[in-house]
Backbone:
């Protein structure tokens, strides 16, 4: 569950949101819409504590503060259009979180990794590729695979289907649109928007729920 | 050693006409900077000559230590200035890093290897610490600049590390590695080619001063190891000590740490 209460957000002196709220319940699939530059991506970044804001923001009942930022980040997967893999090789990137103290004890076995990659229509041979040589769509799916291997169930997704072919997109959506997964997303993709359960729009610096086009 | 008179010394400046001519010809606009730098170097060295004369004559442990502290404070200010970081945020932190590394290795060199009497003899303490400090200064400008600009340029990647469960220390490690590599590689290559490609300054100076080559070489080996060790300790210590001031509670790099 993600709860925004009286959130105000400004970037470089420009007010993007003023005293507005939003509740994303467990299992909700929310898509945020609005004109380009209105602050949709910035709103997503506030959830992971990447941007300063005023007001209150909580994830699963834990209020986002300096001392809770790490705990909240550990519950969330943040995937954007061109995710940073953070390592030279794909294998290294996929196992990167399991080199950190927080996840060392849950390093997945090779079989689970292969299975997860295949579910996302990725050939396990991609593990031996250099990160900079794989496509944007493959990077997105590696980032999603990594989040799934970490057992994350809250996904903050910024245009994550933008670089995917129809089959890969379907595979990603099959994995993410499961009942236990909560999604807060920004997308212009009609298929993604249609699959979401709620639409929220930026209107006059407020977040406004609009009827969802089913 | 043959002492040059002042006229001969200043005649050396005639050589500068060649690079200045080249700068003019290429329209580089470096002639003025070169002249200012050469004038500063001359005045500073002449002043140091006067200071050192008195410091050597006095040879008082506290005065020597005070002079070393002045050198450290100046080196530290220069490091922060050149690496584009704000003095008021980092000054004391990096001063600790510089002092720690320099004093540790120079103590080893002077107290355990050279063993002068008295142990604080200015003829050993001041120039040796000065050499170590001068080299640490150059390398620390690079390590701090590379480290913080690396995180600033790759903000999204840095946030990804945090999102994947990294602590701040774990998240900064790739940038620490890159900056340390960039700092240390030139020093490794200098060490590896020393004696073949370059004849080091201190050794040459001692030989010109009338020392036999072998004692001069032993000093050179000692100082090279001290410089390298101090450089690595200072680079890592400065980065680690500066971390708490450079990031906010949310582990975001503070934008106001940079001078630009």
Residues:
């Amino acid at each position: 569950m993600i709860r925004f209460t009286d959130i105000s957000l400004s970037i470089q002196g420009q007010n993007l949101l003023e005293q507005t709220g939003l509740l994303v319940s467990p299992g909700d699939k929310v898509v945020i819409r609005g004109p380009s530059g209105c602050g949709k991506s910035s709103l997503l970044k506030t959830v992971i504590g990447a941007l300063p804001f005023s007001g209150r923001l909580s994830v699963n009942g834990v209020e986002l503060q300096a001392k809770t930022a790490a705990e909240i980040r550990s519950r969330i997967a943040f995937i954007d259009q061109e995710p940073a893999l953070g390592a030279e090789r794909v294998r290294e990137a996929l196992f990167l979180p399991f080199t950190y103290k927080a996840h060392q004890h849950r390093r997945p076995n090779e079989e689970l990794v292969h299975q997860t990659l295949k579910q996302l229509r990725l050939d396990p041979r991609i593990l031996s590729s250099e990160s900079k040589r794989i496509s944007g769509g493959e990077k997105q799916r590696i980032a999603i695979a990594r989040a799934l291997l970490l057992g994350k169930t809250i996904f903050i997704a910024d245009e994550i289907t933008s670089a995917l072919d129809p089959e890969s997109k379907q595979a990603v959506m099959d994995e993410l649109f499961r009942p236990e997964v909560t999604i807060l997303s920004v997308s212009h993709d009609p298929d993604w928007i249609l699959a979401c359960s709620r639409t929220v729009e930026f209107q006059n610096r407020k977040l406004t729920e609009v009827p969802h086009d089913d | 050693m043959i002492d040059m008179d002042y006229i001969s010394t200043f005649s050396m400046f005639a050589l500068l006409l060649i690079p200045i001519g080249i700068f003019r010809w290429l329209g580089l606009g470096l002639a003025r900077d070169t002249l200012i730098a050469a004038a500063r170097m001359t005045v500073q060295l002449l002043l140091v000559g006067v200071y050192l004369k008195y410091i050597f004559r006095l040879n008082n442990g506290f005065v020597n230590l005070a002079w070393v502290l002045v050198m450290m404070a100046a080196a530290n200010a220069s490091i922060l200035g050149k690496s584009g970081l704000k003095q008021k945020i980092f000054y004391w932190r990096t001063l600790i890093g510089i002092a720690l590394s320099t004093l540790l290795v120079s103590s080893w060199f002077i107290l355990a290897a050279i063993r002068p009497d008295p142990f604080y003899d200015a003829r050993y303490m001041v120039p040796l610490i000065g050499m170590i400090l001068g080299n640490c200064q150059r390398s620390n400008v690079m390590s701090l600049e590379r480290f913080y600009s690396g995180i600033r340029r790759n903000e999204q990647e840095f946030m990804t590390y945090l999102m994947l469960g990294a602590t701040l220390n774990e998240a900064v490690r790739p940038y620490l590695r890159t900056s340390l590599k960039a700092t240390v590689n030139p020093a490794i290559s200098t060490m590896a080619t020393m004696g073949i490609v370059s004849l080091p300054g201190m050794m040459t100076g001692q030989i010109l001063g009338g020392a036999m080559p072998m004692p001069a070489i032993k000093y050179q080996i000692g100082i090279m190891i001290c410089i390298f060790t101090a450089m690595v300790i200072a680079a890592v210590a400065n980065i680690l000590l500066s971390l708490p001031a450079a990031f906010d509670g949310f582990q975001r790099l503070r934008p106001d740490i940079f001078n630009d």
